[in-house]
Amino acid sequence: MAEQSNTEWIRETLAEFMRTTGKKNTRQREVIVDVFLESDDHLTLQELLDRVQVTEPNVGFATVYRTMKMLVEAGVAKERHFGTDQALYELVHQGEHHDHLICNRCGHIFEYEDELIEARQEEIAASFGMKITGHRHELYGEPVGDGPCNH
Fold first, then answer.
1. Which of 18, 23, 90, 120 has the smallest number of CB atoms closer than 10 Å to its CB?
2. Same domain, 82 and 107
């Protein structure tokens, strides 16, 4: 049997969540989910709204907000705050974990994975008699030198 794609997993997980919570699927929700699934970015609600309104101009901010809240509750999106009060949203990728490096100058977000860091975190937790059940690792930095950001 072929491995399920992340998009298929998200759609199935979301459909099950909506079924069990009694939420209805609407055309506007479908468009918001489709646009969000097509994005590889960390998006603000306004950025997502702007993209959605290209094809569905009648969608409002409140609908995008409620839909994203539902996606977070369903476990298929994460709400992040990278040193600001403004929320950014990213897709959850089933079985994947990554960390973030955020540029203080331009706000660009780099995603990375590092097995050594992950292993060291496990060792540190074990030294305290703990087992890690989840974490967020965010690094903040600036480009070396005085030039403009190259990202």
1. 120
2. no
Rounded to whole angstroms, the Cα distance separating 43 from 47 reads 6
Beta strands 138-141; 99-103: pairing state: parallel
Question: Coil, strand or helix: which one is 141?
Answer: strand
Which positions of the chain have pLDDT values less than 50?
A: 1
Considering the domain architecture, whether residues 21 and 87 belong to the same structural domain is answered as yes
pTM, two decimals, is: 0.72
Edge-first strand order for the sheet with 109-112 is 109-112, 99-103, 138-141
Tokens at 95, concatenated? 């079985």
Residue-wise pLDDT tens digits, 19-46: 999 999 899 999 999 999 998 889 999 9
What is the extent of the structural domain holding 76?
Answer: 6-91
- On whether residue 149 sits in a domain, the answer given is no
